[in-house]
């Protein structure tokens, strides 16, 4: 039988199983007695073994088989699911994942299981004595019964005669019992199988990109037709164009939906990294992920990974107190870190919340002054919210010492910069002693966006509406000068006024009628008013990446064509200032 | 004429492989199911001549599904699919009325032979 035709199916399903295993391992650490979870892990390893055996991938079979055997020992109650078992299983999952990469690339295996199969099968629980020895099981003699001989892939076992020392005689009854409890606690697996089953087609992401491109070009052309229709004042043409615009919007929505991937696709890695961080910094915490099903554009999803990881690091490493400190301040010993994803119209909100020590605005301000990042005069103008955003100024860090977890140099400023590049914003809320919440707001898609088009001198520029907090037409007398800066007040907060003309190296605008148009955005962690010559309105734009050397320019994020054929640039305001 | 088959396995990969194999043998695969509950429901719906039933599955394992199927239709021809290491199940499956076993990884000739024997029995 030619098995090569099943390779892609094998790879994608094997990865699904690994993902389920990873998630279940982490969940089981929270509640080690959960029978449904234990059964899910056993089934995952079992299925992987069977699939790999069919493909004759003996290295994968070996690791999966030993993982399965270890889970049988846990399931049949002789072993408690403890952290060392979790470590071994995660290691096994990682090894298999690397093997899959080799298989996919069709190359000689680079990944090797090393002594992991032995460690999996010879695992014995560490003595319950106080000194913690996570590595103890490695040196321990194989006290547990050696599991049955592994199958020889390629051979055709026709007889059901092989010994199975690890299996209990009442296995069927136990599995039956576990099966009944599986439904409520582990719905994901059944769902997963069903999802795969739905008549789905595998499509290369390139093809999706082409579809987005074509849709984008159509939208650009529709804008052109709109202009022509307006010039000709032809009602039939205008009607046809309006109808086409509607259809295009529907097409755009559908194409975008295809490109959307559930947040779940990357959620796994956060679970893993938080687990590792908590272990490393010796903190006891519960990590929750909400909104796994929320769909995001593939490219946004990819660019979110690093910022989210950074915020999680911050929360675990700096935000969360250690156990003793929490108990002293009357909090539960175990901290909670939540990563939540939610949809808000065409935007997606990503929040990282911890119930740790929180941030103290006064301390942030003092630190920023000490580091000469702001002057005392500027500091006096800062609202508590603005003070928290100081952490996004390059060079600012409240952590007393640099730890090897959160690293040095790269801080919230990096998070903020990458979010702005996506046309999103970052907000920080914190209550001293209670905890901190970081909120990222990003557009659901980036290729076709709604943008505010502005005029500065002879140049037109676009700013994603997701980055625009509001537009204001200011009267001259509403501005005041604080220190050397012109500011205006919005919701009781003094916002500095900056000129986009100046940032672009253009002559400053004049405002003969005394009205100054501006939009409010966030830059370097602060809300600022950006003054332009004119606000030209909102447009639906198809953004294309710029080629070199333009792509190297600071503050320019892409280009688009307006309906009249004019080329405009998408501005990354944060990068310009 | 080889007849109709339902394939039950929680792995899509396994179902696809088995489907291709059976279709090559002239069987008509009328239904697939990915867990025990689904298996019972689809069996009632499609009444296949033959059913291949995986043992380790979520929501209801193969043995339980087999028991329910046999209550519904005592003449059902069900072939259990199992992997090495599941021998303790064979007794329970035999008692519940399984007609035969096929072992993973599948040997195409052997699978074809076993299914032929069962459908002609």
Task: Write a structural description.
The complex is a heterodimer of chains A (577) and B (121). Chain A has 577 residues and is an alpha+beta fold. Chain A folds into 4 domains: 4-197, HPT domain (Four Helix Bundle (Hemerythrin (Met), subunit A)); 205-261; 263-443, Heat Shock Protein 90, CATH 3.30.565.10; 448-576, Beta Barrel (OB fold (Dihydrolipoamide Acetyltransferase, E2P)), CATH 2.40.50.180. Helices cover 45% and strands 21% of the residues of chain A. Chain A is built from 19 helices and 18 strands. Chain A has a 6-stranded mixed sheet. Chain B has one domain (4-120): 3-Layer(aba) Sandwich (Rossmann fold), CATH 3.40.50.2300. Chain B is 48% helix and 22% strand. Chain B is built from 5 helices and 5 strands, in the order βαβαβαβαβα. Chain B has a 5-stranded parallel sheet, with helices on both faces. Chain B starts with a strand and ends with a helix. The interface between A and B is large, with 47 and 38 residues.
Task: Write a compact overview of the structure shown.
Chain A has 19 helices and 18 strands.
Give the SSE layout:
The complex is a heterodimer of chains A (577) and B (121).
Chain A: H1 7-30, H2 35-55, H3 58-75, H4 83-105, H5 116-121, H6 136-139, H7 171-185, H8 187-197, H9 205-232, H10 235-259, E1 260-262, H11 264-280, E2 285-290, E3 295-297, H12 298-319, H13 323-328, E4 335-344, E5 347-354, H14 361-370, H15 376-381, H16 384-389, H17 412-421, E6 425-431, E7 435-443, E8 448-456, E9 459-464, E10 470-475, E11 479-482, E12 485-490, E13 493-499, H18 500-503, E14 515-523, E15 526-531, E16 534-542, E17 556-561, E18 567-571, H19 573-576
Parallel strand pairs in A: 2-4, 9-18, 13-15
Antiparallel strand pairs in A: 1-3, 4-5, 5-7, 6-7, 8-9, 8-16, 10-14, 11-12, 12-13, 14-15, 17-18
Chain B: E1 4-8, H1 12-24, E2 28-33, H2 36-46, E3 50-54, H3 62-72, E4 78-83, H4 87-96, E5 100-104, H5 108-120
Parallel strand pairs in B: 1-2, 1-3, 3-4, 4-5
Helix pairs in contact in B: 2-3, 3-4
């Amino acid at each position: 039988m030619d098995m090569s035709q099943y390779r892609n199916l094998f790879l994608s399903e094997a990865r699904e199983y690994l993902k389920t295993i990873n998630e279940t391992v982490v969940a089981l650490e929270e509640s080690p007695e959960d029978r449904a979870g234990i059964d899910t892990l056993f089934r995952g390893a079992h299925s992987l073994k069977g699939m790999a055996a069919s493909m004759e991938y003996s290295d994968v079979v070996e690791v999966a088989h030993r993982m399965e055997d270890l889970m049988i020992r846990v399931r049949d109650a002789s072993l408690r699911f403890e952290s060392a078992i979790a470590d071994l299983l995660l290691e096994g999952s990682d090894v298999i994942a690397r093997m899959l990469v080799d298989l996919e690339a069709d190359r000689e295996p680079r990944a090797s299981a090393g002594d992991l199969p032995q460690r999996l099968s010879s695992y014995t629980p560490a003595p319950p004595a106080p000194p913690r020895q996570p590595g103890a099981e490695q040196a321990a003699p194989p006290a547990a019964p050696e599991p049955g001989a592994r199958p020889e892939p390629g051979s055709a076992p026709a007889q059901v005669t092989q010994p199975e020392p690890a299996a209990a005689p009442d296995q069927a009854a136990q599995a039956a019992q576990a099966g009944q409890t599986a439904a409520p606690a582990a719905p994901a697996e059944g769902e997963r199988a069903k999802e795969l089953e739905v008549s789905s087609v595998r499509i290369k992401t390139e093809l999706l990109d082409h579809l987005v491109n074509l849709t984008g070009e159509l939208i650009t052309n529709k804008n052109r037709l709109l202009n022509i229709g307006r010039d000709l004042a032809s009602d039939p043409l205008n009607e046809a164009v309006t109808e086409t615009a509607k259809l295009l919007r529907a097409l755009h929505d559908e194409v975008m939906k295809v490109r959307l991937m559930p947040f779940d696709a990357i959620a796994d890695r956060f679970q893993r990294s938080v687990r590792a961080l908590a272990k490393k910094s010796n903190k006891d915490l519960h990590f929750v992920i909400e909104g796994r099903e929320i769909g995001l554009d593939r490219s946004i999803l990819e660019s979110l990974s690093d910022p989210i990881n950074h915020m999680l690091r911050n929360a675990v490493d700096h935000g969360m107190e250690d156990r003793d400190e929490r108990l002293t301040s009357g909090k539960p010993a175990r901290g909670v870190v939540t990563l939540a994803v939610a949809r808000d119209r065409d935007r997606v909100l990503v929040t990282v919340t911890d119930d740790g020590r929180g941030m103290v605005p006064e301390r942030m301000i003092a630190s920023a002054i000490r580091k000469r990042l702001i002057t005392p005069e500027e500091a006096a103008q800062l609202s508590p919210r603005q003070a928290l955003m100081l952490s996004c100024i390059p060079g600012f860090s409240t952590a007393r010492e640099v730890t090897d977890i959160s690293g040095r140099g790269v801080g919230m400023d990096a998070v903020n910069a990458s979010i702005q590049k996506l046309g999103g914003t970052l907000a920080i809320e914190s209550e001293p002693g209670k905890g901190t919440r970081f909120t990222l707001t990003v557009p659901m898609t980036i290729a076709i966006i709604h943008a505010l088009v502005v005029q500065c001198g002879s140049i037109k520029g676009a700013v994603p509406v997701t980055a625009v907090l509001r537009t204001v037409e200011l009267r001259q007398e509403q501005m005041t000068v604080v220190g050397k800066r012109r500011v205006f007040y919005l919701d009781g907060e003094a916002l500095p006024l900056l000129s986009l003309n100046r940032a672009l190296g253009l002559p400053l605008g004049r405002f003969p009628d005394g009205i100054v148009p501006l939009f409010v955005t966030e830059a370097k962690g602060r809300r600022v008013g950006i003054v332009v010559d004119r606000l030209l309105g909102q447009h639906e734009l198809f953004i294309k990446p710029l080629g070199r050397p333009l792509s190297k320019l600071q503050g320019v994020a892409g280009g688009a064509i307006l309906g009249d054929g004019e080329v405009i640039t998408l501005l990354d305001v944060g990068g310009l200032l | 004429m080889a007849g109709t088959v339902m394939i039950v396995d929680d792995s899509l990969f396994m179902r696809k492989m088995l489907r291709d194999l059976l279709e090559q043998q002239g069987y008509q695969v009328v239904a697939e199911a990915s867990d025990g509950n689904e298996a019972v429901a689809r069996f009632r719906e499609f009444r296949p001549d033959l059913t291949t039933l995986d043992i380790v599955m979520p929501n209801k394992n193969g043995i339980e599904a087999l028991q329910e199927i046999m209550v519904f239709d005592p003449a059902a021809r069900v072939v259990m699919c199992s992997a090495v290491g599941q021998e303790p199940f064979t007794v329970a499956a035999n008692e519940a009325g399984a007609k035969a076993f096929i072992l993973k990884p599948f040997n195409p000739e052997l699978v074809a032979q076993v299914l032929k024997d069962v459908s002609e029995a």
